[in-house]
Amino acid sequence: MQIRYLSDYSIPRPSLDQGNEEQKKKVKDILEDVRRNGDRAVKKYTAMFDQAELDAFLVTDGEVDKAVSEVDEETWNVLHEAAANITAFHERQIQQSWMTTQENGTILGQKVTPLDAVGIYVPGGTAAYPSSVLMNAIPAKVAGVKRVVMVTPPGPDGLVPGGVLAAARLAGVREIYKIGGAQAVAALAYGTETIERVDKITGPGNLYVALAKREVFGVVDIDMIAGPSDITVLADHTAVAREVAADLLSQAEHGELSQANLVTTSKELAEAVSNEVGFQLEDLPRKEMASTAINEHSAIYVAESLDEAVEAVNRIAPEHLEIQMEDAMEVVGKIRHAGAIFVGRYSSEPIGDYFAGPNHTLPTSGTARFSSPLSVEDFVKKSSIIAYSQAAFIENADKVARFARLEGLEAHARAVESRFSNKKYD
Amino acid sequence: MQIRYLSDYSIPRPSLDQGNEEQKKKVKDILEDVRRNGDRAVKKYTAMFDQAELDAFLVTDGEVDKAVSEVDEETWNVLHEAAANITAFHERQIQQSWMTTQENGTILGQKVTPLDAVGIYVPGGTAAYPSSVLMNAIPAKVAGVKRVVMVTPPGPDGLVPGGVLAAARLAGVREIYKIGGAQAVAALAYGTETIERVDKITGPGNLYVALAKREVFGVVDIDMIAGPSDITVLADHTAVAREVAADLLSQAEHGELSQANLVTTSKELAEAVSNEVGFQLEDLPRKEMASTAINEHSAIYVAESLDEAVEAVNRIAPEHLEIQMEDAMEVVGKIRHAGAIFVGRYSSEPIGDYFAGPNHTLPTSGTARFSSPLSVEDFVKKSSIIAYSQAAFIENADKVARFARLEGLEAHARAVESRFSNKKYD
């Protein structure tokens, strides 16, 4: 793994894949087809892209029962404990409606309401991700969303991975459709004869899913467009090279475009981690993918001082940040931009991916500058409440009319004044 | 104004204007030009679109001083009081970072951090909107954003409206550039030689500004893409027709595409409001615009029952909702979807536009189904914190490794296990 001096290098960041014009056109055509032709179009694309001929998309209770019964007990217990941890953490994010009252009788406030219906996209293919189900469905459930719908592409046998269905059962998702790709996003956004539209679509997916989500944004809300996964480890001489290297590789195995950086104040650690990465890479099942990520998108940066190292981390705005330093907790306050911060030796990143409780859906590609982890807040929306009393109205009506006229909006001023010149007034 | 029975009609909703391909291409070209050529490109487009030849974009302190001195005292006082109300309301939205500690020593939490830098777009042209400055800048300031930048297009004389500058002074905005359109959005998103890039762009604008914001979304965050303004008044026989009509017209004057609906349980009120609207329209300065909005996009809907009326309102998901009914406050709990809810006779909508305190930037075009008013939350982001203790790690490492292997991610499992097989361990 390459070692560079921070003073000489600016750190490259992978950008979001926006797709090319041809891919965008393809996605737009699918969306339009599903919007017009509903289930018929969804069926067509499911046969075309997933090689599955389905009569109905809905997963039956029987299919879920079967999946649950096939999960071994230990795995079920782990899923169950993870779900409990995720629930407990997200319950802390619940916001209350609030109101303020004024002496003149006016009430102002903010009402928090769960979304009516949410669609969760769960990727299929070779890798099945039960953790995605938990991390998307549980915050929605905790928020109070009544209708949580899951979509996931079927295999050519028309089936959905059992682990995903078991996780759905654990998370309380009861409406599951075997559809995927842009056609699934379209079905969720526009609705079909058998699938009612939702208000928001969350969850990861391939490029076509991402393009489709971007395209329907506005018709429905979306969570975020995820780029390649990334990790930055901020470490000093107290860190253990073997552990740092293993944590870097855990993100590198996500894909060729992943980025795994080490920023360190220790030249010795830099060299030891570089060696360890090479060594550990050798017998990784996903060696090829991880090697490309490490060699083409990642590096070890040596900093002259803690301040220089911290500033580099803030410039990176990593999705995952590990702080493996003496007094690691004291460094947290210096971090302005990071999706999740893992503090200390025992906070290995995968603990957050699966188990600890905070969400694993995090801002990638430097968007931690302005974005947050997926949370309960993503599944509620707010309404302002303004209840002016007669006294407050009489006191302030002229001021409002003056402000409106300053902006040239006469009908706004007259709306307020209409209360004065009416028989029913006073 | 047309009267319809809810039982017979589904209520049409204006959709977001997405622009045509030619407009999108134009915007993309401008963005790309500014990204490559910086100030030179911004200067070129400012001359082209605003007919202003500028040597520098930055508004000087002297220009702001002059603008403030030209505002009459009464107007200044109104602006000042509005700013105080907006500040007080938004201070209620401040969220705290939080942490939970577990007996085994683990700490989990959520850190709230203000964005580093935010750009506020303030439209120019014939109408100057000081209220936009207050409604965008104050939440950013309350959130703790250090750098709040304002951009607004200059007139052909190279000047910016005084009211807008006065509002900027009141809101504490000190970095103001005389640029507008897609070129201003590009300068904020990518940065130029004289304008440092920001992390988020908020504020209303014309179609080109909206298209540019949509295009740079991902490079920076944006607030929302605003559609035409709308209001729905929910009223019974106790409402005053003259006042309801005036409130409907206050939104209709915003533009030809605005929508102003009345949903009422009273046939008599429906007829009276219909007459009043016709009558009051006659001598409105923006009569033409408001007439088009009323005749082509708005209607009065008569409901058989309160429940039917409320259900219609929830289907509309209005930007502004007025409840002009007996026991209006009791109806609030039935409303699931609305940007702002104005309760009772004295809560005329313009009071919320300018003065009461809640934000006037609200979800349009039915997006109140899933979106919220602009708030302090739009100017902060969160980072999860995971600090596992050794005890918690030993207790849970095997479970995490099991979950990782369930998803086929071996390097994730090994990252956790690397803590066990190391000399430094224990």
From TrEMBL, chains A, B:
Supply the PROSITE patterns for this chain: HISOL_DEHYDROGENASE
Report the cofactor remark.
Answer: Binds 1 zinc ion per subunit.
What Enzyme Commission number(s) does the record list for this chain? 1.1.1.23
The residues that hold NAD(+) are 121, 183, 206
Cofactor(s) listed in the protein's UniProt record: Zn(2+)
Describe which pathway this protein belongs to, using the record's wording.
Amino-acid biosynthesis; L-histidine biosynthesis; L-histidine from 5-phospho-alpha-D-ribose 1-diphosphate: step 9/9
Question: What CDD domains does UniProt report for this protein, alphabetically?
Answer: Histidinol_dh
Q: Which domain of life is it from?
A: Bacteria
Q: Per its UniProt record, what InterPro entries does this chain match?
A: Ald_DH/histidinol_DH, Histidinol_DH_CS, Histidinol_DH_monofunct, Hstdl_DH
Reaction catalysis annotation: L-histidinol + 2 NAD(+) + H2O = L-histidine + 2 NADH + 3 H(+)
Location of the region described as Disordered in the Swiss-Prot/TrEMBL record:
1-24
Which family is annotated? Belongs to the histidinol dehydrogenase family.
**What does this protein do, in the record's words?**
Catalyzes the sequential NAD-dependent oxidations of L-histidinol to L-histidinaldehyde and then to L-histidine.
Record-given protein name: Histidinol dehydrogenase
